[in-house]
Every structure is written in C-alpha cells, then in structure tokens.
Amino acid sequence: MFDFNFANPTQILFGKKKIAEIKDRIPVDSRVLITYGGGSVKKNGTLDEVLAALSGHTVFEFSGIEPNPSFETLMKAVDVVHTNSIDFLLAVGGGSVIDGTKFIAAAAVFEGDPWDILVKHGAGIKKALPFGSVLTLPATGSEMNSGGVVTRKSLQAKLAFMSPLVFPLFSVLDPEKTYTLPAKQISNGVVDAFVHVVEQYLTYPVNGKVQDRFAEGLLLTLIEEGPKALENPKDYEVRSNLMWVATLALNGLIGAGVPHDWATHMIGHEITAVHGLDHAQTLAVVLPNLLFVCQENKKDKLLQYAERVWGITEGDSEQRITEAIEKTRDFFELMQVKTRLSDYGLGKDSIPKLVEQLQAHGMKALGERQDITLEVSREILERSL
Amino acid sequence: MFDFNFANPTQILFGKKKIAEIKDRIPVDSRVLITYGGGSVKKNGTLDEVLAALSGHTVFEFSGIEPNPSFETLMKAVDVVHTNSIDFLLAVGGGSVIDGTKFIAAAAVFEGDPWDILVKHGAGIKKALPFGSVLTLPATGSEMNSGGVVTRKSLQAKLAFMSPLVFPLFSVLDPEKTYTLPAKQISNGVVDAFVHVVEQYLTYPVNGKVQDRFAEGLLLTLIEEGPKALENPKDYEVRSNLMWVATLALNGLIGAGVPHDWATHMIGHEITAVHGLDHAQTLAVVLPNLLFVCQENKKDKLLQYAERVWGITEGDSEQRITEAIEKTRDFFELMQVKTRLSDYGLGKDSIPKLVEQLQAHGMKALGERQDITLEVSREILERSL
Number of residue pairs across A and B with CB atoms under 8 Å? Predict the structure, then answer.
C-alpha cells in the first residue's frame, strides 16, 4: 500500500426530511446564495423545501448553472456574491451545480485572476466561502469531496481543480429527491459512479486489500441496484443505495493509498468539450476500450475484477479479461448509455481534433503509469468508433 | 436503510516516517502533553521519534495509562494539564491510551464533576482540548472515532462515552510502529476489530448494501491477514492492511444507517471489570455464544455472513449458521485467543456476579432489538463456559 493522507470532514445528512436540518448548519445571520441549475429543483418542490428550511435566513438565488458548468456562468455568480455581500453558499442540484459552487466559493475570495484556479488545478486556493449542498442527483461524488470540473467554453477547455478548502461543510442526501429525475440522468449517474470506482481500482496491485474490497463492494452494488432504479423510480431502498454508493465512489476513501488511472476521464473530457456529449456517455465510450488497450498493464487487477465482480473463473487469462470487459460494456448498455462514438454520430474524422485537444491540455502521459501517450489515446479512440 | 448523519473529520497520516508530519499539525506555541502507557513506546523508540518531531514545541509527558484506562489514573493527568497550562494533547499508544486521552481532553475543561462525563456517556461534553494520536496498536479504532471507554476501578464500572468534540484532529498510522508488539496484542487487536465489524453487521437486514459489502470486506481482510501478522511480524504489507482495517472497523462508516448490536461488548465489559480479562478475550468468549443464542433474530444476516465471508453454501439454514459460528470461533482460536470462560479459569459460579453487574449498569435490554434481557445474557454466559 502507498503512504497516504486522508481526511474528509463533510457532514452527511442522509434520509427523508433531512433538508429541514440545514437551518441549524448555516449561521442564522448569514447572507446565503442558493445556487442551482435549469430549474428542475423549482418545479419538483426541492427549492421550496430549502427556502422553507431557511425562512429565518437572508437568502438570494442564482440559477442557470449548466451541466458541465462554465467559467463564464460561474463568474456571473461571483458578481452576485460580491454585489450582495454573500457569505454562505448553498448548492441545490447535482454534481455540476456543486462543482460550480465550489468554484464560486473559491473565486469569490480569490486574489488575482480566478482563471488561475483552474490553470493551476486548485493549487492557488488560499481561502473559500463556506458552503453546503442539497444533492438531487447521485453521480459525481462532488457532495463529499474537494474537487470540481469547470469548462471554459470560449477555449473548449474542461479543467479539474482540487483543494481541501472546498469540501462542502454539509451535504443533504435525501433519496426521495431523486424520484423525479429523468431516466437518462439516473443512467448517467450510475455509469459515472461506476467509472469513478474503476479509475481507482483497475490499475496495478499494491496490496491495498481494503481499498480493493470496498471498490468491489461499490461496483457490485451499482450492478445490482442500477437497473432496478430505472425500473422502479420510486423504490426508496434502491435510490438510497445508489445515492450512498455514488458518494462513496469518489470521497477519497477507496483511492487512499492506491494508484489512480483517470485517463478515461481525461479523454472523455475532451469529447464533451468538443462535441457536447454527456460526461457519462464519454466514460461509457472510452472505458471498455481503454481497458482493452491497457490490459497488459492492468492484467492482475482485471483478473481480480473478472472474478470478484463478475464471477468469471473459467477460461485462460485473456478470455477472462475479454469477458470482464464485455460485461462492463453490456452493463453500460443495460443502463441505456451507448458505448460507441458512432452511436453519437461521431466518426473517424473526429479523432485528430480530440488528440490535438489532449495535447493542448498537456495530456501526453495519462494513466497510473503515465504511459498512455497521445498515440495510445488515439488507439483507444479508434477502438471506440 | 435507516436515516443517518455521518461525519469524520480526523486527518489520517498513513505510512512510514509520518510521525515527522505532526510538527505541522500542532501549533508551534502549544504546550503539549504527550500521554502514553507502560513505557513500551519509550523502549522501542517511538517516543523518541515523536519528541524529535516536536523539538520546537514545549512538551510534557504523562505515562502510566493502563489497558482499560482508569478514571483514577486519568484524573491525575487532568491535574498535570491544569498545573502546566497544557493546551494540546498527543496520545502515543493503542486504544487505551487514545481513549484515556479523549477523556482527559474533555475532563480538563469540564464544568462540574468529570465523573458525569461517563455517567452521561459523553452527553455533557461542551468542549475539549484539541489532541492528536500516534497509533502503535491496530485494534480499537479509537484513532478515528469519537468514543472511548473508561473504567472506574473503585466501582468495578467500565463505561463508554461519545462526543463529536473528541475526534482526534489527526492520527499517525505507521505500520512499522507495530513491529515490536507482542503477539498477544496483535491477536487481541484482530479479534477486537473483527467483533467491531460484526456488532454493526450481524443484526437484521435493512438493505444497507454498501455497509454490508464494506463490513464483509473488512472481515475477509482480517481473516486473510490476521494469521500472517502472527507468522511474519515485520511484513509491512500485512501490518498496513491490518492497521487500516482496524481503523475502518469503527470509524462510523460501516455503522451509518444500519442497526447496531454491541451486546457482546457490554457483556464483555463486565467480564473485564470483574475478572480482568483482556477486552478481546471477553469478545472471543461471548460472541460465538451470542450468535448462537440470538440466531433466530439474526438469521438472514447470519446466512449472508456464512456465504459471503466463509463461502458456506451447502446444508440447510441451521447447518450453515452453525458452521459459520464455528468458523468464527475457530478463527479466534487460530488467532490464539481462547474462546471459553473455562480457558481463563472461570466457572459457573462466576455468572451470577456478572449478571448482577449488567443489572447494576442498566444493561437489561441489549442487542439490536433490545431483547437481550438479563436472562438471555445469563444464557449466553452459561453457553460460554
């Protein structure tokens, strides 16, 4: 096992009616900016529930944070923070809203050009406004971690940042708040959480036995519960398990002390930035092909994955690995997320631009061994057609 | 899944040479009291390493915190805190030292009689001194939780307390620091961690799928690594896994949103208080018999445990449960912890006093359904002879 430092201070408030507890978590004299997305939280009543809980607080609203939140939009929110002397943020939504709110929290008190927060991947953050979240979409894990991803539309750049100063103080996880989600968002969320686990698990073995067992537990739960969530959108138990799995998939725990890959995310980010595919769609396209191309490097863990997650024990190593990768792809398809670039209307001619973007963003040595060169990324993309 | 609140802010510093990092975690103008036990940390060099890391700090020492730390000893440490205007505590040792230090942290600034901290199980704690720990013995999980157990020798009372104010700020987990532990302490630690997991897992099903998978992952790792730790005391990988498992066994995560039992601990505490058995010895004695006596209540989870942890799939329910309980007992014996009261020289005549003690401490309705009455506890103890 590698040496590691791990801490995660976010207070999780999990269950029905937990939104009511936020009034005790936000100082009553705060000037609160509630941030949200396209308005679904307004339609489905979640925003009203939040406003009712904060009836004694001074509250402002900022809406319009888009999926793959943009630097341009978020800087408008920073203006709202300054204009209204906001001192507490409350994100109500999914990972995009929470990621965006982390950026607002840091950018509002940043000395210098906030773009540097992204260019330096968060290293320059010295302080941030306090904030909490009310999660409505289990997927990204942003509700219990210290990272975010922001897109600068004008540059077609999608950049990640991290800082221990942008952990949410608290996050409300009420599974009932996911009942009204469109099926597509549940599908995407399950795939996103699945790939988060895989990026921290399917690397090379370092004898992190607990991390492996926990990762496998999360994957098994996603495989069991994901399809049920599409069949029965109001099954509280299913939604509960999905919500908690997605949070634990990327809260730092399973990744502590083990190697990480993240190449699927980095390649996927470019596809989103250039062609606008959903984040999870890009992951479903890239992952199976990345596992295939990198199978020699990942051999030991792929065999463990085949056996412990998919119960594959027959055949030689190559057969078991191939079957595990196929089962992974089948699971994404079962979750109604297509796994080929061609499913999204993209052909071979899209690949040079994607590789060029990877190069422009310094992504020349990806993966747990930094040996996914631009050529290997090209090979992965070509297999993804 | 039950509703739950979960947070755990403790910073874990895991790996070789991590003691050096504590200098950055303790304000340099602090007056630090280092607390430890019988002196093994002095002999094996750990204390010197801690002192070297704190060479710029003002440091005092308090030694002599015993296994099952006593109220009487800890109140002497509180005097040392007051006399020397101590404002930061650093526990160097195992669970007893850390539990004791939590009590010192709360008692030193407690308004009223510190005995009330234990009588009210921590509810009265309004503040506590900040403290960290350097763990030398993987077992109790105290290094990453907010609870402790203290014994008042004069009353033969062993009482637990909890408060979010007594989470360690940081804990150093350096597996090399466990190399010099006597085999008995490794044995006890593995059994202790195993039973911590079981107390949060073998109850009744609430569809907490992740909690179950995580609990099973911890148990499987203990079963794999425990015996190796006895065979090869300097195997870094084995010690790493044991150390991280023991911490995760009782840091609140696997117990969030699921029922808890803890009857084995409560009955075991009385055996320690009256007869001085090691904590883990009492657990190894009580658990198999509690599982046997309560098997109807725990049937579904016992069958799951039999299959997922021990790979038992043959036979009818009763046979599978019996086999799983026997395998549990065999594992404790393999870990060189005896599982019968008679192994410790205790006979049937010891039982009335133990039941009386349970009654005196209000333990009349134990277990996840509060249906382990004094009579059921008596039955468990009689089966433990």
Answer: 121
Tokens 């008679």 found at: B342
**Which residues in chain A have their CB less than 8 angstroms from residue B8's CB?**
8-9
Is the confidence metric ipTM above 0.90 for this complex?
Answer: yes
Q: Is A18 close to B8, i.e. CB distance below 8 A? A: no
Query: For residue B212, which residues of chain A lie inside 8 Å, CB to CB?
Result: 217
Instruction: Check if B207 contacts A (Cβ < 8 Å).
Output: yes
Does the beta carbon of B199 lie under 8 angstroms from any beta carbon of chain A?
Answer: no
Q: Which residues have a Cβ under 8 Å from the Cβ of A332 and sit 6 or more positions away?
A: A191, A194, A284, A287, A288, A339
3-state SS, chain B, equals CCCEEEEEEEEEEECCCHHHHHHHCCCCCCEEEEECCCCHHHHCCHHHHHHHHCCCCEEEEECCCCCCCEHHHHHHHHHHHHHCCCCEEEEEECHHHHHHHHHHHHHCCCCCCCHHHHHCCCCCCCCCCCEEEEECCCCCCHHHCCEEEEEEHHHCEEEEEECHHHCCCEEEECHHHHCCCCHHHHHHHHHHHHHHHHHHHCCCCCCCHHHHHHHHHHHHHHHHHHHHHHHCCCCHHHHHHHHHHHHHHCCCCCCCCCCCCCHHHHHHHHHHHHHCCCHHHHHHHHHHHHHHHCCCCCHHHHHHHHHHHHCCCCCCHHHHHHHHHHHHHHHHHHCCCCCCHHHHCCCHHHHHHHHHHHHHCCCCCECCCCCECHHHHHHHHHHCC
Q: Which two tokens stand for residue A194?
A: 């699945």
Q: Of A149, A50, A59, nearest to A93 (Cα)?
A: A50
- What residue type is A291 in one-letter code? L
Q: Cβ–Cβ of A12/B6 closer than 8 Å?
A: yes
Cβ contacts of residue B197 below 8 Å, gap of 6+?
A: B215, B218, B219, B222, B249, B254
Instruction: Write down the pTM of the prediction.
Output: 0.97
Determine, for residues A244 and B5 on separate chains, whether the beta-carbon distance falls below 8 Å: no
B41-48: average pLDDT: 95
Fold held by A11-177: Rossmann fold (3.40.50)
Tell me the percentage of chain A whose pLDDT exceeds 70.
100
Please tell me which of the candidates B8, B212, B217 has its beta carbon nearest to residue A210.
B217
Question: Alpha-carbon Rg of chain B, whole angstroms?
Answer: 20
| Residues written for chain A | 385
pLDDT at A236: 98
**Closest CA of chain A from B307, distance in Å:** 14
Using only C-alpha atoms, chain A has a radius of gyration, in whole angstroms, of 20
How is residue A231 annotated by DSSP? Answer: H
Distance from CA of B235 to the nearest CA of A (A): 12
Identify which of A9, A208, A221 has the shortest CB distance to residue B210.
Answer: A221
The CATH homologous superfamily to which domain A183-383 belongs is Dehydroquinate synthase-like - alpha domain (1.20.1090.10)
Q: Which of B9, B209, B221 sits opposite A221 (nearest CB)?
A: B209
Q: Where are the domains of chain A?
A: 11-177, 183-383
User: How far apart are the C-alpha atoms of B72 and B125, rounded to whole Å?
Assistant: 19
What size, in residues, is chain B? 385
Query: What is the phi/psi pair of residue A135, to 5°?
Result: -85, 135
A304 close contact with B: CB closer than 8 A: no
Q: Do A257 and B14 touch (CB under 8 A)?
A: yes
| B225: chain A residues, CB-CB within 8 Å | 209
Residue B361 backbone zone (phi > 0: left; psi -120 to 50: alpha; other: beta): alpha
- What does the pLDDT look like over B157-183, one tens digit per residue? 888 999 999 999 999 999 999 999 999
SS3 category, A63: coil
